From TrEMBL:
This is HMA domain-containing protein. InterPro entries: HMA_dom (IPR006121), HMA_dom_sf (IPR036163). One of its GO terms (molecular function) is metal ion binding. GO terms for cellular component: membrane. The keyword Metal-binding applies. Residues 25-88 form the HMA domain. Keywords: Cadmium, Lipoprotein, Membrane, Metal-binding, Methylation, Prenylation. Belongs to the HIPP family. GO terms for biological process: response to stress. Pfam families: HMA. It is found in: Membrane.
């Protein structure tokens, strides 16, 4: 924006509208308990009716609803909850992201294949799931990917 544009906006008294902050394109993932195709259809219709939604993907096998659009995550969750279904923000992250996926509080039997609970959601499990610097140092010392590693193995 040029200097003249900025000055002209400052002295423009023709309209007294406030500038709305544009929403960013977001991907919102929600865990929803869905039992049948009717539940799936009900949730899809509720979310598709929202302003700013560009794409809705419902995966009943993983109990997951993915919404892409110019929306706020809390509003999407509120809309899904209005359908009467039990819903929460997607609590899982891919298995590869966590250093210790089998730590207590991180591993979840109910999680979809390849996912574990996000350790950043619970401060008690964060320390257990994170690898310490000495742990990383010792594990990379014997790694096949490290060219300077020990060749005794």
């Amino acid at each position: 924006m040029g200097a003249l544009d900025h000055i002209s906006e400052l002295f423009d008294f023709s309209s007294h509208k406030k500038h709305k902050k544009r929403k960013q394109l977001q991907t919102v993932e929600i865990k929803v308990k869905m039992d049948c195709e009717g539940c799936e259809r009900k949730v899809r219709k509720a979310v598709e009716g929202m302003k700013g939604v560009t794409e809705v993907d419902v995966d009943p096998k993983q109990h997951k609803v993915t919404v892409i659009g110019y929306v706020e995550p809390k509003k999407v969750l509120k809309r899904v909850l209005r359908t009467g279904k039990k819903a929460e923000m997607w609590p899982y992250v891919p298995y590869d992201v966590v250093d210790h996926p089998y730590a207590p509080g991180v591993y979840d039997k109910k999680a979809p294949t390849g996912y574990v609970r996000n350790p950043m959601d619970d401060p008690r499990t964060t320390a257990l799931a994170r690898a310490s610097s000495t742990e990383v140092r010792y594990s990379t010392a014997f790694s096949d990917e490290n060219p300077n590693s020990c060749t005794v193995m």
